[in-house]
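TEACHING EXERCISE
Course module: macromolecular assemblies
Task: Read the component lines below, then compare them to the predicted structure of the full complex.
Student: A.B.
Group: 4
Components provided:
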Amino acid sequence: ETGVTQTPRHLVMGMTNKKSLKCEQHLGHNAMYWYKQSAKKPLELMFVYNFKEQTENNSVPSRFSPECPNSSHLFLHLHTLQPEDSALYLCASSLTGGSNEKLFFGSGTQLSVL
Amino acid sequence: RKEVEQDPGPFNVPEGATVAFNCTYSNSASQSFFWYRQDCRKEPKLLMSVYSSGNEDGRFTAQLNRASQYISLLIRDSKLSDSATYLCAVNVFGDRGSTLGRLYFGRGTQLTVWP
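Instructor-supplied answer key:
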């Protein structure tokens, strides 16, 4: 148990569906992240929030919409996804988002888009 | 150009063997370096940070070579439980001199230790 909880663990959705991924951290951290992990590819940073403010949007398509209502919660809203969006989506948190920060990951949501 | 390059392996070694992984990074302004371990269908977990002078944690030794821009991980006396994928990660400052880091990962190197 890393202190970062993600739900759901698995999600299957059609291309016209709207769904949301949820992440909650119990570590008192102030920075939260969304990463995408596809087969045979490195982890890709998608979004960074530091003290609830988005500080990074790594050229992610608008069909992915993040929301960070407070430092403990992070959402990723999904709509009109494509099959190539199927991947493991990992949430992570760190203390302040600084350059020496160690990341703690949640268990991830395995997403399949049909 | 990829920020971080790793040999994906797989490395298959017997118990007790010594195995080394290397990872190269492209941004000379990279500030901090890490090794993460990822078990099958699980999330990455921090294994160790990598310091300029090199550091050791039990059977694991991490080294950093800034001149050649690579980091390495040495595992001595391999155990069956060491079987996993090892990810190197490099932190780079954000744009416009921001002190906020962006952590870039390599693809990971798969290790299997057999009895």
